[in-house]
Amino acid sequence: MGIGESGKSTIFKQFKIVQSNGGFNEEEKKAFISVVHYQCTSQIRTLIENAEKLGEEMGEKGKKAVAMMNDLYPSDQVVVNKELADLIEVIWNDEGIRKTYEARGKKFLLNDCADYFFNNIQRFAENNYIPNEADILRARTRSVGIESAQFRFQNMRIRVIDVGGQRSERRKWISCFDDVTAIIFVVSLSCYDLVLREDENKNAMEETIQLFEEITKHRDLQKPNIILFLNKTDLFDTKCVESSIKVCKHFSDYDGDDEPVATKEFIKDRFLEIGEQIGKKVVTHFTCALNTDNVQNVAKNIRKYLLGNNLEEVGL
Ligand SMILES: Nc1nc2c(ncn2[C@@H]2O[C@H](COP(=O)(O)OP(=O)(O)OP(=O)(O)O)[C@@H](O)[C@H]2O)c(=O)[nH]1
Ligand SMILES: [Mg+2]
Q1: Which of 1, 14, 136, 140 to mutate to test the pocket of ligand 1 (most atoms within 8 A of CB)?
Q2: Which residues are annotated as a binding site for GTP?
Q3: CATH class of 8-23+143-315
Q4: Residue 111, class by beta-carbon neighbours within 10 Å (0-12 exposed, 13-18 middle, 19+ buried)?
Q5: Is 293 in the active site?
Q6: Which CATH architecture has domain 33-130?
Q7: In this predicted model, what pLDDT tens digit does every residue of 91-142 receive, in sequence order?
Q8: Which entry of 46, 77, 122, 166 is annotated as an active-site residue?
Q9: Domain assignments of the chain as residue spans, ordered by start
Q10: Which helix (H) or strand (E) holds 315?
Q11: pLDDT exceeding 70 applies to what percent of the chain?
């Protein structure tokens, strides 16, 4: 569980990869081609739109590329061919677009991995392109509904349920509450200075904390263990130095240095306090969902933790 874009589905994908004999087969990989292509086109359009809104002037080459893209490729175009890739590359290299990119998060929302898609666009446009694991982990689709899969970690089978985190999705969660052994609550550490996609008046960390409180106190969820993933450590470690966590009203009393280790511990303690208030033990892990080794280690720990609770077969 967790708010939209905290990284739930990315972790779900990683579980599929790191399980015993895991990974994506050829057909499953191909299914991500359109998602990868859509990331490229939708995110460049977001940048163009916001460059206009912010009054960032584009160069002549960039403007020409935008005009050609709009003429030749409708916004619902899903296939990125060589010509479209070249146009997107020119636009991405435009100075006005780069300035707009630097304003992401502060003035508008852009997908976390947008730069990855622009920087690799020529590879995505190749005729025989098959997404690799790095592409798949970054290819975002907003989860709608509930996805469930059974993963095997050595001798232990774990059923994992992935839910959508945006507000409209959360009312579906109740149907998964029966028989869960543990809840993985995913927090995007780097969202402390962002607003919600579905409500631009709401700080995303504030929403996360409120949601965590609701979940820990929910009367139907008194039994399950709570495993907290403090995710997006890679983005957080860079961001917390540039933009103090104090900008988030829940962390305004932080009086330490703006550096990654102390700030992460401070945020972790905030979540642990919420668990303690209702006498619930919360197990925490710092994660970078894009890092397979990191998730593999965390998965090993979870397996041990669940085995420690004498559970041979569990449903998460
Ligand atoms: N840099 C970075 N990006 C991440 C990390 N975890 C997830 N992402 C990216 O963040 C975006 C959103 O991740 P998702 O896994 O789709 O988020 P979600 O929680 O499933 O979102 P909903 O389905 O809307 O609830 C994707 O582009 C991911 O690749 C991380 O640890 N670091
Ligand atoms: Mg999802």
Answers
A1: 140
A2: 5-10, 162-166, 231-234, 289
A3: alpha beta
A4: middle
A5: no
A6: Orthogonal Bundle (1.10)
A7: 999 999 999 999 999 999 999 999 999 999 999 999 999 999 999 999 999 9
A8: 166
A9: 8-23+143-315, 33-130
A10: strand 313-315
A11: 97
Which tokens in the block code for residue 243?
A: 């933009």
Q: How far is the CA of 60 from the centre of ligand 2 (A)?
A: 39
CA 44-46-47 angle, 5° bins: 65
Please report, in range form, the residues annotated as the binding site. 5-10, 143, 162-166, 231-234, 289
State the closest ligand 1 atom to the C-alpha of 141, by its place in the atom list counted from 1: 16
Counting ligands in written order, the one closest to the CA of 287 is 1
d(CA 269, CA 17): 31
- Residue identified by tokens 């977001």 is 46
Strands (E), 102-189: 146-153, 156-163, 182-188
Please, which contacts does 76-79 make with residues 24 or more away whose CB atoms are closer than 8 Å? 77/41, 78/34, 78/37, 78/38, 78/41, 79/34, 79/37
The number of the ligand 1 atom at minimal distance from the alpha carbon of 137 is: 29
Alpha carbon nearest to ligand 1 atom 14, residue: 7
- Range 61-93 burial, b when 16+ CB lie within 10 A, else e: ebbebbebbeeebeeeeeebeeebbebbbbbbe
Are 44 and 91 a contacting pair, CB within 8 Å?
yes
- Tens-digit pLDDT profile for residues 138-190: 999 999 999 999 999 988 899 999 999 999 999 999 888 888 889 999 999 99
